[in-house]
Design brief:
The complex is a heterodimer of chains A (207) and B (274). Chain A is an all-beta fold and 207 residues long. Helix content of chain A is 0%, strand content 41%. Chain A has two domains: 56 residues, OB fold (Dihydrolipoamide Acetyltransferase, E2P), CATH 2.40.50.100; 113 residues, OB fold (Dihydrolipoamide Acetyltransferase, E2P). In chain A, the strands form four sheets. Chain A has a five-stranded mixed β-barrel with strand order 8-9-10-12-11. The N terminus of chain A is likely disordered. With 274 residues, chain B is of the alpha+beta class. Helices cover 35% and strands 25% of the residues of chain B. Classes of the chains: A mainly beta (207), B alpha+beta (274).
Chain lengths: 207, 274
């Protein structure tokens, strides 16, 4: 394999390795897996080149050849939907452990922080953390910012975000969602306050 | 030590490097030519549990590298870019002797190798794409037959690429030795005995597409022209290593995709791997 870049029209479908110069900078735009170095666009990963001519200037991207044998998520970025476990709470915030990013499990959990004012969209100052989530709950949240060295800042201020799984404080049975702010224990019929995520609607069957 | 070749120094070195190499006097102990590499093997994906892995053999030197990450970096200040941490270890059977005194020299040798590996590799990873993250490079020298550092650098870079991390380029390295201070003869990819007998040793790592020199280490006594010739030889050897690294990275994907096509096709004739 020579180090000369393939000609522009034959770029699509060719193989690239990190550092290979794909095109000159004015001729195309960087997509996924392509970076700009000096006056050229170079591949960032080893994989197949694809040229998207639908946009002007065309978008160059490189996609990896194989999926990893044990897929592990990349660290969360702003806007990702993350699945977390609540570790501890205090009146101002809840400490979380981020387990999955967009449904893909992380190799090692990282820290998350849910502040009181990020729990819901309305009456943000009147939130009681104790009635929003409890230690041990599994929460679906969205990453707000990279936060500090220890934790990402997340938010559950949306209908689809909030507690998705919780156990009853009395007998440990799985709580069922009742409303956006209540869950029901099926054994004791006791109601427990949580900020509940709206359950996903089942796929409608065509009649 | 990171060296970026400035334009003036680059021009001067170009003039020196264009001189022809000296004539060889005696044959090398393994029968190679002066500018011949040892048997080279590069494989990626040897450790499925790691994020990325690679195995490199240069002659009798066998090096294994595993990448873990990017993962959350604990106990450090918030960084808008990632960190690369390299650790080199020698296996218990890496050297010929089981001399207990070698263990203490190994500790300082591994620290120096870890620092050199870190210097060579950290510039090749797009660390600004991985904020707050730590990328761990664990390298182990299974057998040291000479030229451990060049093998470690090439292996580490191949493993980083296999881990699908965003890189600026693949870093390939090669060593050279100047056996005699006066003669100007240069031996490419020296074995352990040639390294011990040499008056000067040189290791160069390069990213050929970018004309980068992330690592250049030279020790011992030698004439300047011999060092320049050794650098030229080492860069040529590194280009060959770079070619093998590319083939290994792309071959793994091609065999996997052809295996998927065969399994989808069902009971067709199995053709030989390309």
């Amino acid at each position: 394999m020579s180090t000369a870049p393939p000609a522009g029209s034959r770029l699509d479908g060719t193989l690239a390795w990190p550092g290979l110069r794909l095109a000159d900078a004015p001729d195309a735009v960087c997509g996924e897996g392509v970076h700009r170095w000096d006056t050229g666009l170079h591949a960032s990963i080893a994989g197949t080149v694809s040229l998207d001519r639908s946009c002007e200037p065309p978008r160059l991207s490189v996609s990896a050849l194989t999926a990893p044998s044990e897929p592990a998520a990349a660290p969360p970025t702003v806007g990702d939907i993350v699945t977390c476990r609540v570790i501890r709470i205090n009146p101002r915030l809840a400490s979380l452990e981020i387990l999955c990013v967009a449904g893909v499990p992380l190799r090692e959990p990282c820290g998350g922080l849910l502040r009181r004012e990020d729990v819901r969209e309305f009456e943000r100052d009147a939130v009681l953390m104790r009635d929003s989530c409890r230690p041990g709950d599994i929460v679906q949240a969205r990453v707000l910012s990279l936060g500090d060295s220890r934790a990402y800042y997340v938010t559950t201020a949306s209908e689809e975000l909030g507690v998705v799984f919780a156990r009853s404080a009395e007998d440990g049975s799985t709580l069922l969602p009742l409303a956006w702010d209540e869950m029901l224990c099926p054994a004791t019929h006791a109601r427990e306050a949580r900020k509940v995520a709206r359950p996903a609607r089942p796929a409608s069957t065509a009649v | 030590m990171c060296v970026y070749m400035r334009r003036a120094a680059h021009k001067t070195l170009r003039l020196v490097l264009d001189e022809p190499p000296p004539v060889a006097d005696t044959a090398r102990c393994d029968g190679r030519g002066d500018a011949e590499l040892r048997r080279l093997l590069v494989r990626t994906g040897v450790l499925p549990k790691a994020s990325g892995s690679a195995y490199v053999e240069m002659g009798e030197t066998k090096v294994l590298c595993a990448i873990f990450g990017p993962q959350q970096a604990d106990g450090h200040d918030f960084l808008s870019h990632g960190r690369l941490e390299c650790t080199v270890k020698f296996s218990a059977f890496a050297r010929r002797t089981t001399d207990p005194a070698a263990a203490t020299t190994d500790a300082s040798a591994t620290a120096a190798l870890s620092a050199s590996l870190s210097a060579a590799l950290s510039g090749s990873v797009q660390l600004d794409q991985y904020p707050k993250s730590l990328i761990c490079v664990h390298a182990m020298v299974l057998q040291d037959g000479g030229g451990a550092l060049p093998a470690l650098v090439s292996c580490g870079s191949a493993a980083l690429a296999h881990a699908r991390l965003k890189l600026y380029g693949l870093v390939a390295a090669c060593g050279a030795a100047i056996p005699d201070e006066g003669s100007g003869r240069v031996l490419l990819d020296p074995s352990a005995s040639e390294e011990r007998a040499a008056s000067s040793r040189l290791v160069a790592a390069t990213v050929p597409e970018l004309s980068h020199l992330p690592l250049l280490e030279q020790e011992g006594r030698a004439q300047f022209e011999a060092v320049a010739a050794a650098l030229r030889h080492a860069l040529g050897g590194a280009a060959t290593v770079h070619e093998r690294m590319r083939e290994a990275l792309l071959a793994e994907g091609q065999t996997a995709s052809s295996a998927r096509k065969r399994s989808r096709g069902g009971g067709g004739a199995v053709d030989a791997a390309a």
